[in-house]
Amino acid sequence: MELEVKTLDGAAAGSITVSDEIFGLDPRTDLIHRVVRWQLARRQAGTHKAKQRSEISGTTKKFVRQKGTGGARHGNKKAPQFRGGGKAHGPVVRSHAHDLPKKIRALGLRHALSAKVKSEVLIVVDNAAATEAKTKALAASFAKLGLSNALVIDGSDLDRNFCLASRNIPAIDVLPIDGINVYDILRREKLVLTKAAVTALEERFK
Prior knowledge:
The protein is an alpha/beta fold and about 210 residues long.
């Protein structure tokens, strides 16, 4: 598959041949959904906590005699049915993460990339570098490329000026190739890959 390469100013910079096994698949939403669920579950804090009756501070004295009151046979007031008592079957601190095979994770990433190509919202640029850390200049370059909501993926080493200039632009994310993931790809309208990122992806999925 041939993809057009552009410069940051929107000019043509040739083309690049990419693997159909990475960018030319027929996207499967079920695989992509599984990977996104796995990602969001892993990052969920799981710090919710309610005290059970054994954790409530208070007396354990039997507050009413066993017989003769005509009411229920209660023990102490830390029971769940009383105000201030412990929560029955309440939330506890735990991890929400679940397992997902590596092959499914890799396949989900390939299908997410293919989905961007199929939707014609994937742009390949020759490099992501700026001569100076000026947000205004970089925003003008993004406007020429038609980028208002995008994820930019570069090689393993990010250009410092590019990162500084882009971090104040709303809805623009910049990640190294090591940080590429399905959720961030899908949450932005367009995906921008540098030639270095494409080469790294090809090596990764060999």
